[in-house]
Amino acid sequence: MTSILVLNGPNLNLLGTRQPEIYGSTTLADIEAMCHDTAKTLGVSVTFEQNNVEGAMVDLIHAARGIQDGIILNAGAYTHTSVALMDAVSSVEIPTIELHLSNIHAREEFRHTSYIAKVALGVICGFGAHGYVLALQAMAQHLKASS
Fold first, then answer.
1. What is the spatial distance between Cα 96 and Cα 29, in angstroms, rounded to a whole number?
2. Is the separation of the CB atoms in 60 and 52 below 8 Å?
3. Residue 109: its pLDDT value, please?
4. Which of 29, 88, 95, 97 lies at a 20 to 30 A Cα distance from 67?
5. How far is 62 from 55, CA to CA, in rounded Å?
6. In Å, what is the CA distance from 63 to each residue of 23, 36, 47, 125?
């Protein structure tokens, strides 16, 4: 069965209470349930992870090699700062979609730069929690077309 890692970065564990005017009121647990439901309809399996530590996220990406067929990465603020995450994605050679709840291009200037986008299949942003569904659909379609 096709397997997809959904990896969430710093502060996403606070969804539902953290800046709801930007990120909404949906919790990370709600998003995880949504991802598992979507995965069932797509006939894929999902591993759902969250970590606030950049190095731990690099380790999770490395561990996905040979196990996961795709990665959906919401790197949070590390999107704009982490060459290490960019290099990890590039190094494991697993198709990766960058994901954001908010439209990073409509926010502060520093959020317009993404290191992850340079090595990603594509970027989904601005659709709130539904972006996870869109990312899973896009990844499943990409993996099916590539097989």
1. 22
2. no
3. 85
4. 29
5. 10
6. 29, 21, 12, 26
Amino acid at 79: T
The pTM for the full model equals 0.94
Measured CA distances, 5 to 106, 116, 132 (Å) = 27, 16, 12
User: What is the residue type of 74?
Assistant: N
Q: What contacts 126, CB < 8 A, 6 or more positions away?
A: 100, 101, 102, 103, 104, 105, 106
Residue 44: both structure tokens together: 């894929």
Question: Residue 132 catalytic?
Answer: no
Asked if pLDDT for residue 20 goes beyond 90, the answer is no
Of the candidates 78, 100, 115, 132, the residue annotated as catalytic is: 100
